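wait is this the right file?? whatever heres the structure
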């Protein structure tokens, strides 16, 4: 009983000691430093303002505003929210957005035809097919149809391949890992030699994040 009491007392003392210490995070190769909260919303607002300031130059170069087409199939609430936010961001940045809404019953051939039409449209500079797609559609076959230079999601196999190669530049990088790296860069967080843990392996987030951190010489798990 005395031993058990001692163990409980030691555990409580350790908990109290941890609570009293300043919260810190250690980065590989550096001394521990105070944790820093990165305000993603504020940073996103700043980036949109920077893009809006650059859009007039693009208008002069192209003779028109840059154009983004978003294709959504079905009525998923989360997908509708994502698309609505993208349309709003385009408006704030001076980008012309085109939303193609297709019913849940749309066939794969019809969706591919819509993508090919957007590929041929010179007023469209980027194409984004909102994922996930209905189960009767093979996502990879649809994404493969997007013109490489218009693949703003960076999901085309050639873009992912270029992302994985050193000293090569893809036409586009998947938005989530790109956002992570941009936030760290703007926050002046040193990443080379650091350890990154990626939870999940989805084609939309996990795999691209893993590839991006690898190409930025992280030690990844």
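ok assuming it is, sequence goes like this
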């Amino acid at each position: 009983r005395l031993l058990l009491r001692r163990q409980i007392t030691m555990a409580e003392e350790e908990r109290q000691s941890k609570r009293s210490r300043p919260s810190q995070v250690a980065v590989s190769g550096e001394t521990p430093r105070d944790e820093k909260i990165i305000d993603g919303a504020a940073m996103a607002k700043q980036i949109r303002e920077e893009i809006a300031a650059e859009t007039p130059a693009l208008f002069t170069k192209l003779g028109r505003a840059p154009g983004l087409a978003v294709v959504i199939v079905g009525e998923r609430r989360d997908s509708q929210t994502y698309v609505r936010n993208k349309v709003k961001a385009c408006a704030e940045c001076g980008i012309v957005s085109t939303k193609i809404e297709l019913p849940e019953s749309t066939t794969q051939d019809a969706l591919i035809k819509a993508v090919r039409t957007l590929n041929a449209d010179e007023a469209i500079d980027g194409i984004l097919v909102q994922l996930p797609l209905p189960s009767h559609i093979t996502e990879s076959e649809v994404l493969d149809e997007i013109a490489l230079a218009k693949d703003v999601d960076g999901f085309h196999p050639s873009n992912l391949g270029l992302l994985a190669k050193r000293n090569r530049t893809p036409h586009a990088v998947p938005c989530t890992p790109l956002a992570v790296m941009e936030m760290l860069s703007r926050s002046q967080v040193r990443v080379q030699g650091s350890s990154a843990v990626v939870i999940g392996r989805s084609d939309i987030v996990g795999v691209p994040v893993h590839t991006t951190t690898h190409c930025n010489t992280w030690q990844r798990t």
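The helical segments are 2-20, 40-62, 77-93, 108-120, 139-143, 157-164, 175-186, 206-215. so i think its the right one actually
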